[in-house]
């Protein structure tokens, strides 16, 4: 999997509209697995975005699409500053994955 982890500054007044803008109901994005907006418990006008795709190819295809650019302009207008973050490959570290349980000697079911 491949995706983006981004830190974004947004005011409380724009939070609900940001969530709606980032999850358009009328657009299916090829290869997109999930999008999460994480709001820290100690809110300080900051949220984290995690966008997950099947692979780098589908991520890059979406990033280059005119539709994504238009969506970015809409949600960027709601932010207090340019988002910061990074893109890269995702690796699970969950101890509950079946392959990890098998290596640890734990039962797989």
Descriptive key words:
109 residues, four-stranded antiparallel β-sheet, single chain, alpha+beta, Alpha-Beta Plaits, 34% helix, globular, 27% strand
Please, could you describe this protein's structure?
The structure is a single chain. Helix content is 34%, strand content 27%. The protein has a single domain, classed as Alpha-Beta Plaits (2-Layer Sandwich). Helix 1 (12-22) runs antiparallel to helix 3. It has a 4-stranded antiparallel sheet with strand order 2-3-1-4. With 109 residues, the protein is an alpha+beta fold. The protein has helices spanning 12-22, 56-63, 66-76, 98-104, and strands at residues 2-9, 32-38, 46-53, 84-89.
Largest sheet: 4 strands, antiparallel
Poorly predicted tracts of residues: none
Oligomer, anyone? single chain
The first-level CATH class name: Alpha Beta
Percent of residues in beta strands? 25-35%
| Molecular shape | globular
Structural category: alpha+beta
Helical stretch tally: 4
State the CATH topology: Alpha-Beta Plaits
Query: What's the domain count?
Result: 1
**Order of the strands making up the biggest sheet:** 2-3-1-4
Number of strands: 4
Secondary-structure arrangement, i.e. CATH architecture: 2-Layer Sandwich
pLDDT average, as an integer? 85
Question: What's this, in brief?
Answer:
The protein is of the alpha+beta class and 109 residues long.
What is the topology?
Blueprint: E1 2-9, H1 12-22, E2 32-38, E3 46-53, H2 56-63, H3 66-76, E4 84-89, H4 98-104
Antiparallel strand pairs: 1-3, 1-4, 2-3
């Amino acid at each position: 999997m491949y995706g983006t982890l981004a830190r974004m500054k947004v005011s409380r007044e724009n939070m609900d509209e940001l969530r709606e803008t980032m999850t358009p109901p009328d657009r299916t994005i090829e290869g997109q697995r999930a999008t999460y907006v994480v709001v820290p418990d100690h809110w300080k006008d900051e949220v984290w975005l995690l966008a997950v795709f099947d692979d780098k190819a589908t991520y890059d295809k979406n990033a280059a699409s005119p539709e994504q650019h238009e969506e970015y302009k809409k949600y960027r207008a709601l932010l207090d500053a340019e988002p910061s973050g990074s893109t890269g490959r995702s690796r699970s570290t969950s101890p509950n994955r079946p392959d990890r349980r098998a290596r640890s000697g734990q039962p797989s079911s």
